[in-house]
Amino acid sequence: MNFFDYNNSFLGTEKLFVVQHTFFYVLSRFKTNQILPAITVFLVYFLGFYILSDYFKKIDTKKNVEFFCYLFFLIVVPFALVANNIRNILAVALIAVALYKDMFAKGNKLIIGLIYLIACLMHIGVVPFVLIRLFIIIINNFSLKRLAVWLLFFAIFCGGLLLFIRTSFGTYFFEKMVFYLTAGSNSQSNVNAWFIAADNSLVLKINKYISILFSLFLLFFLMKSSRGHLYGISKNVVLFFTFTVLLIVGLGLFFPGTTWYRFFYLIYFFSPIFIYYVSVDGNLFEKLFVVFMVVWLIFWQYYQITHQSIFESDFIWGILSPITFLFR
């Protein structure tokens, strides 16, 4: 089957996710089934390390603390999730690069827009991050002197939103949003079964509340430290993570299941940068909290690997096996 036949095999709006389909199609040409998780693992960790290395090049770092931040990234990103999740975590990794280039590094706007688009065409779950970024741009340009202009813009925006909802992509997006916010909307769905299992699991509940606490901790430290002269930590960065953390907290506390977790993925990619400043400038309590998080995250890595059925076989070696042919 050629790529065009493969892409056309999807129904309706699913055809729009051409990046996702291309990624799957190309990797399906290889003879090993484990090439997909292997490449995903490589790309996610590579993109995370790229963000950190590029950021640390721009500041005068303490090398031992910088090394700890790289290590923290390896600890905070669950290997089991990366190997098993594929689409969503890879899309979040791409969005993280776009946001870093956009808000921290002030990169080329055309390239940044292209990365945003690629990420959205990889998985629809990252669209809210783009909407938050657009909302911040609107806030930054708002002025009471231009109230009439903004009222007109608001009317056009509402009309555009209604038209967007009527498109196949808009309908698909809002259907997915309702589907996950209502635990699958169907008692027979796999999502509903997983949400019930997650809500009944003591360890998953503990991880949810610790993750929410960690998100709030980073946000409060970010707000406190942004008054200083931290490279790239602008008002836009603080605003973006304020809205993102509020989204994580709202979904985690008031909605069933693990929908909150999809947005927490983004914290993985930027938390080492914030942890750097905690390690350098934080007080004793803040540093002790980071130590607590390291201990919990090591346990969480162990728990996920030992409690996912896919890891009962030689799955990890299977992920590495596509690479071993390079050394034969």
From TrEMBL:
Keywords: Membrane, Transmembrane, Transmembrane helix. It comes from Ligilactobacillus pabuli. The keyword Transmembrane applies. This is EpsG family protein. The chain crosses the membrane at residues 35-56, 68-99, 111-135, 147-169, 209-225, 237-255, 261-278, 285-303.
